[in-house]
Prior knowledge:
Structural class: alpha/beta
Shape: globular
CATH topology of the domain at 2-226: Rossmann fold
Radius of gyration: 20 Å
Oligomer: single chain
Helix content: 40-55%
Amino acid sequence: MKQILITGAAGSIGYETLKQLMKKNKYEITVLDLDNKKSRKRLEIYKNVINIVYGSINDYELIKTLVKGKDVVIHLAAVIPPLADKNPELTRKVNYFGTKNIVDAINETNKNCFLVYSSSVSVYGDRISNPWIKVGDDLNPSEGDYYALTKIETEKMIISSKINYTIFRLTGIMGRPDIDPLMFHMPLDTKLEIATTIDTATAFVKSIEYEKELKHKIFNLGGGEKCRTTYREFLTNMFKIYGLNIKYLKDMAFAEKNFHCGYFLDGDKLNDILHFRHDTLETYYNRVDKETKRTTRFFSRMLSQPIIYFLLKKSEPLEAKKKNNKFLIHRFFNNKKEK
């Protein structure tokens, strides 16, 4: 029976990966996450059937113990935006040095272990003018994107190590969306290829049995042609599902540049190996629609204007314009004189 370690198991992708692994009923599973209320609430229901460890990937002795004897490490633990951009020191500590601990532990105790590492489309940076993305493209993170910087640095460290690895660069992963100030960082004209949390987890689960085909390679992970849209269209559909009137949303609240996402030109390569894609934009919208309570939709319709007004107050690009913050204006907006 293969032994699997999942880091970041209480996160959205990690938890879905755990649930799918449990259904397989053929692996010995260990999970690692921080000791907090969210982690315990999600993981404790499995305490009698898996090995749950609460701790930090920055604890090398702990990581060395966990990695020893494992066949596969699915590494999903990371500091993500918006916290990642607000605390670069913590982001590098966790994303780079935490991963280095795993790589070093594999080299020291378990050279046959296979590391499946979760990277990000953010490493490619702003692709508004050239939305078709492939693995060999230059890595050019957007200004202020410390998360992307740590992913690039970590990828290089993994590649230069002597371990067995594969790297999945994840597109925008959609589960049940939360209201996040980061939503205003993405330009409305961004070409967006989503992948659902369910399909993404399926890819990580299936990777366990395809080490030979994946080893020492990097892949773009996206939902494919049926999951492509624009950010404006995506927001329009999501607002409709939630009962919000998008007419109250101001275009000027959104950045015009310096984000990421696009269409994966070579995304089929991973799917041809793992066959993980099942969702489309339509199935995703339908699922969110079914999960949205009627009362939520009713009150959203009644209170659209104040709700969206509250959302707009979270927009950093809009705030930058109001306060004439030239540094952030340069970061978020195009120079009109150049047009």
